[in-house]
Amino acid sequence: LVSCSAVSDGGAAVVWFKHDLRLDDHPGLVAACAEPRRRVVPLYVFDSRILAGYSDTRLELLLFALKDLKLALKSQRSDLLIGLGNAEDAVLKIANEVQAGVIYTEEEVEQCVCSVLANVESSLSNGSFTRGNPPEIKFWSAPLYDYKSLRQLSTSRNQFLNEKFSTTTALPAPTLPTLNVELDTGSLPTLEELKVFLKESRMAQDNWVPIKSTSARSILKAALIQRKIKSNVSLSDGDGENIEDITTSAGAPGRKIAGSMFASESSLEVRGGTDITLDALDAYLKYLEGTGKASWQELHDKVRFAETRDGASFRTLFGNAIQLGVISRRRAYQETIQYERDRNAGFLSPFGYSTPTVTSAVDAICSLEVIDIFPNIIFNILPLSPLLDSPNNLFVHIKVVLALGIEIPSIH
């Protein structure tokens, strides 16, 4: 056991998970475990600001992923600490209780998550700690392409693709030290408990109503009644049912399947942790080969439903898993390219890939990587002064920024 007397003088290392719910290919976890005799404290915080844009489906997949991550950590005699509430409060509390010297967390590009990170940094810098200095926050990233800095990248997407950067190699999962802390690690909430928490966490100024639970007609009807305006317009549907009783549905939830890669028969998204997702990716890539495995046959059936357009099946099946960080983009890319090499005696054809599933996977992974890179290029690299000289150029770039959904900084 790692006792307090055996801990290094630098303090414990807290690994704060957000969109990186895995042990495999995790640079932050590798760095935390690199120093001998240092305690490594994995942490996940249910922060309503980070989860605000999650659909019910993604929330369910999040809980599946966290359950598997917790089991994977327990298999190494560690555990995942669960926090609920504002990240700045939870991280500050844990950092004090474990006497953290450093906090590892993934670099983010989403504006709302970046705001949360800024709040955490401010909270740590203004907090008081029993070991003296506040812990240092170290950001990590796992880029697919091998570039030293964003400044060497072109702001043109086509030119960026023509550069043909080499890809980086995924890291193996590290061996964690035993977690020996006198702390309540917390338990995972159910889906219903999580939805109630998010509903109660909404700020008063948000004041919005979910479309799926309330129709536009009922909102107008409530407004008319409140203003005491009489109307002869019927606000019921054709069968005489009350509009307020009608809600949209994505279909019946379906029956749960033991050992399935999916949450239910009607689900099209792969659920679970890294091992399940990698097995599903293997089954997806080998779609044309056929299989005797029941779980693979089920996935092949899902592919036929999800392939509504050429290449759409990969994003449908694995999009949430990649966004939650159950597998990294470069691990998925590496497994896909390795399968393609195995099919072609170790070679990659210059004329394209040998199967449509490989093509779909590579296209989707590389597109997701570029989407993450270009918001950083626009605001960190792109000089604004030349744009201001040409109103047309500035207009075009602002259109791109708005299309990406990025918050525009002040321009004086």
Write the layout of secondary structure elements.
Blueprint: E1 12-17, H1 27-34, E2 40-46, H2 56-74, E3 81-84, H3 87-97, E4 100-106, H4 111-126, E5 136-140, H5 157-163, H6 191-200, H7 216-226, H8 274-285, H9 294-306, H10 312-323, H11 329-343, H12 356-381, H13 385-389, H14 391-404
Parallel strand pairs: 1-2, 1-4, 2-3, 4-5
Domain Photolyase/cryptochrome alpha/beta: 11-145
Protein name: Photolyase/cryptochrome alpha/beta domain-containing protein
InterPro entries: Crypto/Photolyase_N_sf (IPR036155), DNA_photolyase_N (IPR006050), Rossmann-like_a/b/a_fold (IPR014729)
Which features would summarize this protein structure in a list?
14 helices, 412 residues, Rossmann fold, 7% strand, alpha/beta
Short recap of the structure:
This protein is α/β, with parallel strands linked by helices and 412 residues long. The chain contains 14 helices and five strands. Helix 2 (56-74) links the parallel strand 2 and strand 3 (81-84).
Characterize the structure shown.
The chain has 412 residues and is of the alpha/beta class. Among the domains are: 12-142, HUPs (Rossmann fold); 274-379, no CATH class. It is built from 14 helices and 5 strands. It has helices spanning 27-34, 56-74, 87-97, 111-126, 157-163, 191-200, 216-226, 274-285, 294-306, 312-323, 329-343, 356-381, 385-389, 391-404, and strands at 12-17, 40-46, 81-84, 100-106, 136-140. A 5-stranded parallel β-sheet has the order 3-2-1-4-5, sandwiched between helices. The longest helix is centred in the C-terminal third of the chain and has 26 residues, at 356-381. The protein is globular. Mean pLDDT is 80; it is low at 1-7, 229-254, 381-395 and 406-412.
